[in-house]
Write a structure and sequence with these properties.
196 residues; alpha/beta; Rossmann fold; five-stranded parallel sheet; 5 strands; globular; binds adenosine-5'-diphosphate
Length: 196
Amino acid sequence: MRLVLIGPPGAGKGTQAAVLSERLGVPHISTGDLFREHVTRGTPLGREAQRYLDTGELVPDRVTSGMVRERLARPDARHGFLLDGFPRTVPQARELAAMLGATGSAPDAVLAFTAPEEVVVARLLSRGRPDDTEDIIRHRQRVYQDQTAPLLAHYSGILLTVPAVGPVEDITARALAGLADTKGRAAQSVAITERS
Ligand code: ADP
């Protein structure tokens, strides 16, 4: 299964990604984690990404897409993956389509986690990552609204909206139920096509 997770910073995307990747048996690929690993290792990519991470800006598409392309080419991603944090812009979604198109595949579903801004800001303030100061958090929310939210319309055909307020297990259950439903509908439409 090829899944994309979208949601404002603080929607709990990373938490759900870890649980869902385990349950679905596909690798969890988080661009935020990959960037932070590069920064820690002091690689050239990490040095380039650092100032964007520090200010809550998006890392340029060229850098991000290159990193994701390389990660998706690893053998463990051949039969599926869960992308957490990519694509984050419409041009990145086009890049992803091109990467997957080369292998004749496309995302199966996009899970969009939703939560009110005050809830997500409060969660991030209690998380305490270095880029979690109130100013940077507010800025990342604006960046999400401006650059990432347009993806919801871009992926409207395969979008599953998951309300992300409440216990972690409930949110996971909602996501899995939505996915099961999508698979059921896909199987049904194949059966209908075969019959006609
Ligand atoms: P959050 O979900 O709290 O924003 P992430 O760990 O997903 O945190 O991302 C942290 C930072 O990494 C972002 O603020 C951004 O600078 C960078 N980043 C992550 N994914 C992308 C992406 N697809 N494109 C550009 N920059 C990204």
